[in-house]
Design a protein that fits this description.
mainly alpha; 10 helices; 0% strand; globular
Length: 297
């Protein structure tokens, strides 16, 4: 008679790494620190506060490499805490391109509706001055926020509580994180939670790839600020197009100082797509039922 194989013993550190909330806190903290350092490099270098003479090529190259480095940092954290290499971070060029196309198309759809409603008015072309800064900020926010919120917060909550609760809680936290931005209101916080937090989590569940949501997030921010010149989460931008929103229109349509992503139009369009991703994810068998697992594998 043979004894049943026993699972490998875990030491004190191994037991700590199984605690879901601890994973979120420690992994999130390390990644947020990495994102902060990436932003600090771009900010200090672009303001000529470093000994190295400023060059746009160096700025783009180093910032881009640092963003890719965040993916590597995420993989190492997953390996350390979960004892696996993350398939969700495996390079997926096709899904990244799909995300870019979706993000671009979504915001173009928002402006198309606002234009038909007479809220947005085309005023010519501004040119490409300043577009590089918008691009790099979209890159940093796309990589950084998706690795932290979908890669860590949503995914660990899903392992602990199931998909539905993880989506609701991570979306709420994502909205609250933007609540301190310039021009933020209760409506903008709700809009970000629902349209961005909900959509991005649903897209991740369907694809099980961080590259889809990174591409979507980057393209959304860049199209909003770099193409249409609208404020991005309260930050003023100058885009290629001069496409102002009517000051006389209701804030519910324009988003006010926060930007059109806080408009009811953006909320409806993005929530509709989120619902599509939810249906597709359920059909694919990716939606995980309710559970309560404070200790993870």
């Amino acid at each position: 008679m043979h004894d049943e194989p026993r699972p490998p013993r875990r030491g004190f550190f191994g037991t700590l790494t199984r605690i879901g909330l601890l994973r979120i806190f420690v992994m999130g903290f390390v990644l947020v620190t990495g994102v902060g350092l990436t932003m600090a490099f771009h900010g200090e270098y672009s303001r000529h506060r470093m000994a190295l003479p400023y060059s746009p090529i160096i700025d783009y190259a180093v910032t881009g490499l640092l963003c890719l480095g965040l993916v590597g940092l995420y993989a190492l954290l997953v390996r350390l805490f979960e004892r696996r290499w993350p398939t969700e971070a495996r390079p997926a060029p096709g899904l990244a391109l799909l995300g870019l196309a979706i993000g671009f198309g979504l915001f173009c759809a928002v402006y198309a509706v606002l234009s038909v409603m007479g809220v947005a008015h085309f005023g010519g072309i501004n040119g490409f001055a300043g577009i590089g800064t918008v691009f790099l900020m979209a890159l940093i926010s796309g990589f950084g926020e998706e690795l932290v919120f979908r890669g860590v917060v949503f995914r660990v909550l899903e392992d602990s509580l199931g998909t539905t609760l993880a989506l609701v809680l991570s979306a709420a936290l994502f909205g609250l994180m933007h609540g301190a931005n310039p021009g933020a209101t209760a409506v903008s916080t709700l809009a970000i939670a629902v349209e961005a937090g909900g959509l991005l989590a649903a897209a991740y569940v369907w694809s099980r790839s961080l590259w889809l949501v990174i591409g979507l997030h980057c393209a959304w921010n860049f199209t909003e600020g770099g193409v249409f010149g609208a404020a991005v989460s309260g930050g003023a931008m100058k885009g290629v197009l001069n496409f102002p929103l009517s000051a006389k229109a209701p804030i519910l349509l324009t988003g006010g100082q926060f930007g059109p992503e806080a408009s009811v139009v953006a909320m409806i369009i993005c929530t509709s797509l989120a619902a599509v991703f939810v249906v597709l994810a359920v059909k694919r068998g990716e939606w995980r039922g309710l559970r309560f697992k404070p200790l993870l594998g």
